[in-house]
Amino acid sequence: MKTFFANILLALPVSLGLILTGCSKDDHELNTNLQPVAHLNAPVADKYIKLQPATSASVSFEWDQARAEDGSLVLYEVVIDKDGADFSNPIAKITSDGGGVQNKLTLSHKDLNSIAGKAGIAALATGKLKWTVNASKGYNIQPAAESRTIEVERPNGFAEIPVDVFLTGDATEAGADLAQAVKLKSTAAGVFEIYTSLKDGKYKFVDRNTGTPTTYFIDEAALKEGGESTHSGGTKVYRLRLDFNNTAASITEITAIGLWFAPENSIMYDLNYTTNGIWTFENKLINFHQESWGRDERYKFRVSVKAADGTAGTEWFGSSNADNNRPTAATPLSFWELRPIANSDQYNYCYKFASEVDTKNCDVKLYFSPDKTYTHEVIVR
Q1: Under 8 Å between Cβ of 162 and 206
Q2: Hey, which end of the chain has fewer CB within 10 Å, N or C?
Q3: Do 279 and 304 contact (CB within 8 A), yes or no?
Q4: How far apart (Å, rounded) are the C-alpha atoms in residues 326 and 344?
């Protein structure tokens, strides 16, 4: 009996080996066979698309499903190249919607504009892009049976609009140290501005304050890539505004800012520029105006400007409300936000001083600083 059980034990490893060997490696091998995409559905061949990268517009690329031999999942990517190219070195490969699972790709005008720029289609020009779809299962990648072209018209803007823009150079308040470059405020998609002073010297805009950034400069009313601008004529205060959507730029000199006291229809005090977009006056007496019905405390701000061609003008900043109550400790901070107002009416869209300001010396500070909401504060001494 002992010999019998010993033989069984000796035979077990051999039997297990035969059983495991019987499970053929081929039974578990991944089947990567597939039929490629047979037909592209949208956009139609040679479809014309006027690109609007500053909007949420998009283009939908659609195609028939590829078929895996084992009925399992197929992944897709859209391949885009120059017109006439063979996709051997494409401009872009983009995974389809749903992480590559869907036989559809939603591509924004912004991204398509960037691809068109890389294809050599200039701003304001029209050109063609060629596209197809790769289907893949494992290591097996199969191009679609056909390709198409689309015709795109690019706007007058940069193919790549930066997320952030900084100001640097020896003419700026922060100097030429890139790490100290001042970030501009984003006021709309692709539009940036900064209130700052410039002294004689060079300045430029960059898309980051580290490494080797892309640089931009103002050339009259145009925004261009590369190079730098030169400022001369002594230190002055400006609003610099850049529109990357239209390659446009403006340089507006801020010649004065005054606190407009509505009941007297005149400037009560001028504010002086300090640095970093801040204007202020300090320790000035503020008296409300006596009316038959009580004390009038309404005010807003008048900004005197000069365009690059020397044309003088006036801008007004005030409240978002046509009328207000006097602020208290419970008034939200949004009350003091500076809003551009087209209406230069003597009384409308004015703020009101708090009651405790009357007959007191005060500091008033305006913040056109790029790192915060444009606002102001009144500090009782």
Answers
A1: no
A2: N
A3: no
A4: 21
CA distance 51 to 381: 56
End-to-end CA distance of the chain: 109
Tokens 């209406």 locate to: 343
Contact between 149 and 49 (Cβ < 8 Å): no
Which residues, including other chains, have CB under 8 Å from residue 90's CB and lie 6 or more apart? 79, 80, 81
Alpha carbon distance 84, 81 (integer Å):
8
Classify the C-alpha dihedral 277-311-322-264 as positive or negative: positive
Q: Nearest to residue 207, comparing CAs of 167, 251, 254, 253?
A: 167
Q: How far apart are CA 314 and CA 352, in angstroms?
A: 22
205: how many CB neighbours lie within 10 A of its CB? 28
CA 209 to chain CA centroid, Å, is 16
Fold of 34-153: Immunoglobulin-like (2.60.40)
Q: pTM for the whole thing?
A: 0.70
pLDDT by residue for the chain (381 residues), tens digit each? 444 444 444 444 444 444 444 444 444 577 888 999 999 999 999 999 999 887 889 999 999 999 988 878 899 999 999 999 999 999 999 999 999 999 999 999 989 998 998 898 988 899 999 999 999 998 899 999 999 999 999 987 787 789 999 999 999 999 999 999 999 999 988 899 999 999 999 999 999 999 999 999 999 888 998 889 999 999 999 999 999 888 889 999 999 999 999 999 999 999 999 999 999 999 999 999 999 999 999 999 999 999 989 999 999 999 999 899 999 999 999 999 999 998 778 889 999 999 999 999 999 999 999 988 999 999 999
The pair of three-digit structure tokens given for residue 280, joined into one six-digit string: 């202020």
Going from N- to C-terminal start, the domains of the chain cover 34-153, 166-246, 254-301+311-380
Phi, psi at residue 31, to the nearest 5°?
-90, 110
Query: Measured between alpha carbons, how far is 304 from 15 in angstroms, rounded to an integer?
Result: 97
